Amino acid sequence: EGKQANNSSYSEARVLSKLQGKLLKQVRQTCQNYNMLEEGDHIMVCVSGGKDSAVMLYLLQMLQQKLPVNFKLTAVHVDQHQPGYDGTPLVAWLKKLDVPFEVVSEDTYSIVVEKTPGNKSYCTVCSRLRRGIL
Fold it and tell me: Which of 41, 70, 73 is nearest to 59 (CA)?
């Protein structure tokens, strides 16, 4: 039983390592193909707390170590004052990653509620306000 658990953990780690390598290669190629990173660039990585932005930040941090180009990263998160939201876990994760970060606090939630008809999604208004802040 213990041996099976170890084999399972090992195979999961291999799959994750392969996935990480594949994603890193794709991001590196895209950055090189489109000249997205230049010496001295300072890149704002907008972090929502979701998987997509977290993975992008992590991969860009890895590229910082691997590419011959020197660039800075700053993670930025917008706290939109949604009821019940707790950004503490995200801030703890950013500190653990040891990446410079900023949390911008703006009450967009009340504006979104006011401007969005009752039967519509908040997404359009919310995303426009968030982009405006950034």
Answer: 73
